[in-house]
């Protein structure tokens, strides 16, 4: 009991020191209320002071709450001061470009970042309003920024926020110009953040320069240049931004490209940080696109498209004759886009990640195009090949697509949606659909059926234990076939890859959410042109594979 009392006293003292340095009166009041609730509030207080949010390759991301283990003005001030100090130490010149979404606290965090930058003598350029992440990534390149900050938690729960960092050409190099940071930059920035002294001594300057709408217009103009100006445009699209910031930019891009303006789900059209109509603001989550499908049905749309809240991801929902509407998997959209670009004669490097379908590899091999496979995350995809060939397309199965690396060197849900629309309109003009094209690819390369076993946890030890279990008792057979390849990517990455003659399993913890993920793939040859039969066999095999992998992980 004495030890418990000592622990509480220790954390109480940490909290008091934090209060003395916290620049936000609302956060101070929040933390004071937790302190007043002691000893009953001890577990909550301990969690808030369990450690600082770590600045990794995804930047910062966490719940909005007072204390070092949360997103708040104090944490953002420290992060901005560390980042600005690191940029100066690297000799980086040029402005810091700052964007933000419409989540709680985003604008305040962006404005504080600008003040920290100008207080250190560095120009700060602030996007004019809440805008998609790809607009920020574009702006870093377009404006010659030394770096960019995007305040967003992407598709995380409403109570979260985050802080992503991009580097310009000067410090990021040719491959990393306008891309998210990779090691060792993340460790360097983290060390600089930890070395920041009292926040009361961080100089704050002017608010910085708020950019005009001409930047957004420039992004839209360049986005529409991604597609053929003379292609078919007869396509009816239903769309939702899921209460995020994508609607204005996407509809403007469609209109400028000559497509009919998509119909937008009315009660999801405007940014709303509470995300009131979805249980989780991610188009992949069950029920997230129900309203979109209802709108598509009511309007007779040819296609339905959803962005995630910061519009860097793109979900595509298609109408099937027998089964109604179905969301395409990220791998399906990825290979459709790649095939479309290949058919348009776009040559160069095509890339995806170790957790994505192996179909892109097969397509590139058959068509004599360079291919590369990276760790998960667009920070790696845009650096694929190490410059051996120019990247022309990259995707990850989590609904992220880069169809124009010269425009945005990151995933971009706006240009992806435009390119999907271009493909769908061209097929419609021939009396065909996206699923018809998928069947063609299956007939040529076999059915590559992918799925995912994803488990959200409250206790991260569940993930640690499952990864230890799969390493200690690795299956020797899956689907009745011997496991002929086992790759463990530690220490570089916490990933285990299992392969048989016709199946692949990639197991890893999520990098952004408390989830354990197993990515499953079964390849089934198509006999006698019967794609439907091959899909049925592959679907049954995936169901069995999911059960076998779940048992091996103990989940």
From TrEMBL:
Biological processes annotated in GO: carbohydrate metabolic process; purine ribonucleoside salvage
Needed co-factor(s): Mg(2+)
GO molecular function, one term: phosphopentomutase activity
Disordered as annotated region, ranges: 1-26
Record-linked InterPro entries: A-D-PHexomutase_a/b/a-I, A-D-PHexomutase_a/b/a-I/II/III, A-D-PHexomutase_a/b/a-II, A-D-PHexomutase_a/b/a-III, A-D-PHexomutase_C, A-D-PHexomutase_C_sf, A-D-PHexomutase_CS, Alpha-D-phosphohexomutase_SF
Domain Alpha-D-phosphohexomutase alpha/beta/alpha: 54-168, 218-319, 330-443
Alphabetical UniProt keywords: Isomerase, Magnesium, Metal-binding, Phosphoprotein
Gene3D superfamilies: Alpha-D-Glucose-1,6-Bisphosphate, subunit A, domain 3, Alpha-D-phosphohexomutase, C-terminal domain
Domain of life from the UniProt record: Bacteria
Residue stretches making up the Alpha-D-phosphohexomutase C-terminal domain: 455-534
Keyword Chaperone: no
Extent of Basic and acidic residues compositional bias: 9-26
PANTHER family listed in its UniProt record: PHOSPHOGLUCOMUTASE 2B-RELATED, PHOSPHOMANNOMUTASE 45A
Family (UniProt): Belongs to the phosphohexose mutase family.
Protein name: Phosphomannomutase
